[in-house]
Amino acid sequence: MASQNQLFLGTFVHSKALDELEYLHNAAVCVDTSGTIVAVERECDEAKAKETLLPRLGWDVTEVEVVRAKKGQFFFPGFIDTHLHAPQYPNIGIFGKSTLLDWLNTYTFPLEASLSDPARARQVYTRVIRKTLSHGTTCAAYYATIDVPSTNLLADLCLAAGQRALVGRVCMDQYSPDYYRDASPESALADTRESIAHIRRADPSMSLVRPIITPRFAISCSVPLMRQLGQLAAETQLPIQTHISENETEIRTVRELFPPSATGAQDDSYAGLYDAMGLLTHRTVLAHAVHLTEGEAALVAARKAKISHCPCSNSALTSGAARVRWLLDRGIVCGLGTDMSGGFSPSILAAARHAVLVSRHRAMGCYSSSEEGEREKLSVEEVLFLATRGGAEVVGLEKKVGGFEVGMEWDAQLVGLGMVDEEGKVSEQDGGGDVDVFGWQGWEDMVPKWMYNGDDRNTKKVWVKGRLVHERK
Amino acid sequence: MASQNQLFLGTFVHSKALDELEYLHNAAVCVDTSGTIVAVERECDEAKAKETLLPRLGWDVTEVEVVRAKKGQFFFPGFIDTHLHAPQYPNIGIFGKSTLLDWLNTYTFPLEASLSDPARARQVYTRVIRKTLSHGTTCAAYYATIDVPSTNLLADLCLAAGQRALVGRVCMDQYSPDYYRDASPESALADTRESIAHIRRADPSMSLVRPIITPRFAISCSVPLMRQLGQLAAETQLPIQTHISENETEIRTVRELFPPSATGAQDDSYAGLYDAMGLLTHRTVLAHAVHLTEGEAALVAARKAKISHCPCSNSALTSGAARVRWLLDRGIVCGLGTDMSGGFSPSILAAARHAVLVSRHRAMGCYSSSEEGEREKLSVEEVLFLATRGGAEVVGLEKKVGGFEVGMEWDAQLVGLGMVDEEGKVSEQDGGGDVDVFGWQGWEDMVPKWMYNGDDRNTKKVWVKGRLVHERK
């Protein structure tokens, strides 16, 4: 929590609708000590705010901390990373030419298993939290590992660093290496309950960190395990996260491993399996969903389950190009995930950029009409919506974060771009980033420029629930 | 030129073959005052270098400048950007949902035309040279504009900044806006000759900057203009750069505008047209080549023309995913281009990364066998070859730059990655970048990590022809 009431002044940019950004220029936003936005005032400079706005709130002007966006800077909602594996962070950028299943065995499981060493877990988790915060990620849905103490440590570190997080102890009791597998459904359940209890003790109001039930994916979970996790979700009303339909070999394997005769599912689809296990709920985050069938999409939509689109991983692991437009057309809520380390970047801004590019590769596919291909394209506005409002809804926080509205909490980033002077230079203070803005360019150019070339250097400050959690030196 | 002989010590990484990087650890490279590499010595630390290597060269140890790569750092050849439009730099990241031809009219031509203002040209060109140098681009094949003075200024600025460059005054006498078009083939030729003469005066030995004949692309050039530029190339033995087969509408337009009956070409193909105009030579750099036919590829290969692959632009402009493996299989030399601002990034490292990703989208296409798709994938090693040795051959400098060999010139960058300590921190000195390396990771992990997440922060120093031309503060 912030120790003082805060007044933010300048330009605020956030999503008004899927395809529309709203620009609030010369505006004022007031955030109280609980981190809640209590006023959003247009056409309100510092003098006016102090004369009329703060008194109206009953705030003592001398005790308010004022934060001003300078020329070329704007406030933007914090990013929501709806899918990432914290223990895999050291492996980002390491793939060889592998695809999903061999990549898991070659690179991923050995690294995850090694994080049962508390010192290594502390090192890696400390780094991944710092790194994602520095990229403006104010909320992250983390997969940890099967190890309870280090999963709990991840939650503790998020809480200490002030990052909003969903933290899941990973469940996997079959088709995984002997050295990295739950011994039984019962032990997986007990370990999951233990981790949930720890996280609830650490943040009883779940105001910042909450547990999330995490069956890794169908292949690595037995039917009894999935069923019991589904029951646990019903009992606790906790969210669920898992993977679905990322890769064709994976989908074939799921079909072979889980015939409807053995599961009671209504068909042999991947989504149908999860549904039969009680895992397809309105609190479920499904990562990838690249190859869903029409029937599966209808089921996902009916259950109001949410989808985390992970474009960097789609491309890097050659999984396929997810049909985001098709999902959105079916009323399915989507957000963005970095999917580290299936994705190579810790940045949701990079995920947004790559979502634009992957959508263009979809548009270059074969369609019966060029209009059909054209519709596949996601715009800058749309991917920034997915990165904020969309992600917030995916993790069930759409009333709390994702935009600048009275009653929401102040999860935000201050973004600064490099303003090129007449000699072709950018001052060190403004710059140090890779986004150059020229004097004749306006806001409608600046935000796309940020989306296409921005990085953590442009994220000058980051707040969660009103607390300053990252500042770029 | 460097004022002193130089001794570089540490790890050197460069391409040995298309799919193989060579790591020279604990090595020494000596560069004389002309910028030429005179020794590459393996297993040679500083003491040994001073005791045996420098005396062997007849160098006075006290007068040699020593540059050491620290832990986590390595020397890598400078990048070659084989295709970019310097005047378009301010527009990177600005596309809307346009594709090639409407993008040219909406965004590109107005900006290019505005650079006839010398102050704006100086501002933009200064910035683009600084920016590309900071990303490790030691050599760039620039398109300027139709304006002669500002084209000449670009060459002068490259020379002053020490960037190796090919600089082309753009020719376009048809199907372009009235406000931005050559008045006639004759005036285009005269202006081109004027710019060539200027650049030759500025760098008589062409040791750093050289002119390049630049018909924009077929659509915007009349047959007489293309013929005369072909003759000029034959007369001067200068290189040529142009675009080919980027976008399907463009290709259809070329076919309609230039029937073989009017050109004397052997068929109605895009490559056939350039060939008939005398523009398809072993010194020609063809940007894009996304949709070449088998027959065109055979013609390009026969003429030994080179191709600049611009993956960021392929995706961003929805042009198509170039078939790099297919081109390489046909013996065609390829390099990488940023294609700013059709591409969104000033970085060849980003182009290399995106070349990997675009190749994966090709691999996800429809093939009769999975092996066929698999072959489409470009590896980290391959794209780094394209970024250095490949690019050098594309611009005709393969004997001079692209690798660390005796007799080549020292066009190089010092790359540094962030080494994560046990507390999960990276020291400011090493870091400030986005690439985190953990203690247990070796060189075979570090280079891919750099390729996937590196940026200009990792490029600590840049040299061209032995001269330090960029240093990161």
Automatic annotation (TrEMBL), chains A, B:
InterPro entries: Amidohydro-rel (IPR006680), Guanine_deaminase (IPR014311), Metal-dep_hydrolase_composite (IPR011059), Metal_Hydrolase (IPR032466), Metallo-dep_hydrolases (IPR051607). Its EC number is 3.5.4.3. Its cofactor is Zn(2+). Residues 76-469 form the Amidohydrolase-related domain. It catalyses: guanine + H2O + H(+) = xanthine + NH4(+). The keyword Zinc applies. It holds the Pfam family Amidohydro_1. The keyword Lipid biosynthesis does not apply. Pathway: Purine metabolism; guanine degradation; xanthine from guanine: step 1/1. GO terms for cellular component: cytosol. Coiled coil: none annotated. It is an enzyme of class 3 (hydrolase). Gene3D superfamilies: Metal-dependent hydrolases, Urease, subunit C, domain 1. PANTHER family: GUANINE DEAMINASE (PTHR11271). Catalyzes the hydrolytic deamination of guanine, producing xanthine and ammonia. This is Probable guanine deaminase. It comes from Chaetomium strumarium. The lineage of its organism: Eukaryota, Fungi, Dikarya, Ascomycota, Pezizomycotina.
